[in-house]
Amino acid sequence: MVEKKGLGKAIGHAFLWFGIAIVLFPLYIALVATTHTFDVLIGSTPLWFGGEFFSKLELQERAKISKAVIEMLEKNGVLEGLSETNQISLF
User: What's residue 24's pLDDT?
Assistant: First the structure.
């Protein structure tokens, strides 16, 4: 078996990361676009989120993502401080 060493290994990893970026970037843009109004998106697509999500339910509905993605985000601590629903607590 032939193993790549040094520069060959680095170039291989660079191509893999480039491929991952090409796949994930459109998904990121779609998620960002769901947080903006149509008027903002007419000129050019912003690269950062607009507005805030008030609950995990709102995030799931506006971004049109599955429950599995919400669970993954929760597991990684991305959704800390976000309530489950839009209900306002009185206490």
Answer: 92
Torsion of CA 11, 23, 80, 67, to 10 degrees: -140
Evaluated on CA atoms 54, 60, 61, 62, the torsion sign reads: positive
Do 59 and 53 touch, CB atoms closer than 8 A? yes
Contact indicator for 70, 59 with CB cutoff of 8 Å = yes
Quick one: which of 21, 34, 91 has its CA closest to 63?
Answer: 34
Cα–Cα dist 9/79, whole Å: 36
**Block residue for tokens 């999500």:** 53
Digit-coded pLDDT (tens) for 16-68: 999 999 999 998 888 888 777 777 777 777 777 776 777 888 888 878 889 99
